[in-house]
Amino acid sequence: MDTQKPIDREALSTQSHLAYDLQVIFSLLTTKESIMEGTTKKRARRTAEQRLADLEKKHAEIMERQRAAIAKIEEQKKRLMQAPSARKDRVEQEKRFARAAYALAPEWDQRHYIAALELALAEDAGTLRSRGEQLLEEHGKPRRGRRPKIG
Q: Is 16 a domain residue?
């Protein structure tokens, strides 16, 4: 049988701390020696034009990333709008609008609606939205007795 001594975790921890301390001391000594030898590098000063050019370059890169991100989001929106469920919702909204429009003004055609839209643009958008939702709720429902297909 193989008998192993239990690992002394405290001694192991102390050894690793000592090894780390030795590394730190060695790096400090080598840094001190290089400073004493005079081999340190002097910092190169950049002109205002160089800094301005770098900022403009960074600005252009950020704008390009933003354009790419926006294009990606638009593509995702386009794919979602083409999904069958979104198309079904859109068709249902169009049907509700057609039913409500016919219930409110059965004798009107597209020319009347365009003229009414032009007059409505002068009104407050919030008021129009709330009134439109109320009218869709009243007149946009399908006739009683019909049930939508569950699919």
A: no
Q: How many domains does the chain have?
A: 2
Instruction: Report the alpha-carbon distance of residue 26 to residue 42 in Å, rounded.
Output: 23
Cα separations (Å) of 59 from 54, 62, 65, 145? 9, 5, 10, 61
pTM for the predicted model, two decimal places = 0.39
In a domain, 144, yes or no: no
Question: From CA 77, how far away is CA 19, in angstroms rounded?
Answer: 56
Higher pLDDT, residue 87 or 53: 53
- Please check whether residue 139 is in contact with residue 99, taking contact to mean a CB–CB distance below 8 angstroms: yes
Q: Which residues contact 142 (CB under 8 A, 6 or more apart)?
A: 95, 99, 148
Q: Is residue 87 part of a domain?
A: no
Give domain status of residue 9, yes or no: no
The answer for residues whose C-beta is within 8 angstroms of residue 108's C-beta and 6 or more apart is: 101
Residue 121 pLDDT more than 70?
A: yes
